What does this fold into?
Amino acid sequence: MKKNFRGMTLAALLLSASASAQADNNQYVPANDSPQAFVGDVASDAPVHVGSPFAAPVAPISDYAPVTVGDLQPAGFFDGGLKKAIGGCDSCDSPGCDGVGCDSMCGSKGGGGLAGLFNLCGKDGWMRAEAMLMFHAERQAPPLVTSAAPGVFPVLPAATVEFGDDLDGGLSGGIRTDVGRYLTDSFGIGGRTLWLSENGDDYSASGDQTDATSRSLGRPYYFVPRFNPGTAQEDSVIISQQNLFSGNVQAEYATDLFMADGYARMTFCHNKSSRLEFIAGYTYAELDDMISISSFRRDEDAGRNPNLAATAFSSLFETENRFNGGQLGFESMVARGRWTARALTKVHLGNMEQTVRKVGTTTDFLLNAPVSTQNSSILINDEQGTQTQDVFTFIPEMDFTIGYRFRDHVSFTVGYTFLYFDNVAMAGDQINRNRDTGNIGANVTPVAYDIVEGSHWVQGVSLGASIDY
It folds into this structure.
């Protein structure tokens, strides 16, 4: 009799546990075609089951469906919410939670997988990497190399500009990264970097006066006589021309860009499919520009200057722009199914340190005397050396990105980026082509000069991947 009583008691407890677990999961099993019957519902005047702080209304006993021991489930809910999620997710509404916990990127126990390596499981984090394909604005510079028909003096405006004017470096590659996490539901921090490879081009040409078909080459400048400026006119230093000189010229230009910023983001408003955030932080940027040109000519008329065999001219114009300041902006996000669209607009405000360096040399190779070198060149006279100044500037930025989620929290992205740099020193703007012929190749005393300010922009597309938790 005791054994039968104990067996009945154990069966009753097991059935009660199974019914409580099923009710807590809000799963109902209709019995006798009753749509209101919930397995394991407890009457309001009955003892409350373990783990629940309230008593719920129940269906009549006659409506219960048969329950077996195999229907048992762990009771892991509290007040209808997820009490414990596999992988460390706090609730089913948390990013990275797929209904039973974090997705496979986090691993099954909350500590493994790719996200676990970065301690992002159970938190709102993001990692983004994009390949950048960018175009720089054309750099402006005066005509630096000209050419003309064989035996013709290579002087403007009749001559052809071979190097100078608009300098277009074409497409430049780079990479952008963005990593961060939300510390609360509405506040997060992050860091971003942007690097673009060198954007530029080079040029070289040579001429031999012994070849009747060889074109003439020159280094143009604007001749302004010191004592009679009213007679100013175009002129050129000959590098190669029949019966005068044989020579060559090499030139190049390059622009480099790097940016890094740390920021905080605060949510203005959001719902399940959209989000609007305010962004503020610190930005550092480097924009460097350079133009160099060198030429060598050999005198083919020994009777004109018996002691002078050859001359080399070299000119270098370098600029560095270092930005330190803050940033303010907004980012909006809209999601539709697997598609996500983001729009980031912000402006960087702060100090731009501009540094300009001008270096010029003229070297004479003499037949019966040591080599002679002077500290000026065709385009660099007494205004040479290094100058620095600080100016207040701004850098507007716009980014538009579309992403497609091909698996949970992992997306491919494509976007467009535009950056505008105001109040920067570019190398071509620092070239003064007004010269007095008598000063070319002479030793001079360097004097201070004014930095010429300009602007520059960069735009292009991005292709990348995004991981969000």
In short: The domain at 124-468 is CATH 2.40.128.90 (Lipocalin). Residues 229 and 409 are 70 Å apart (CA to CA). The helical segments are 2-24, 113-117. The longest helix spans residues 2-24.
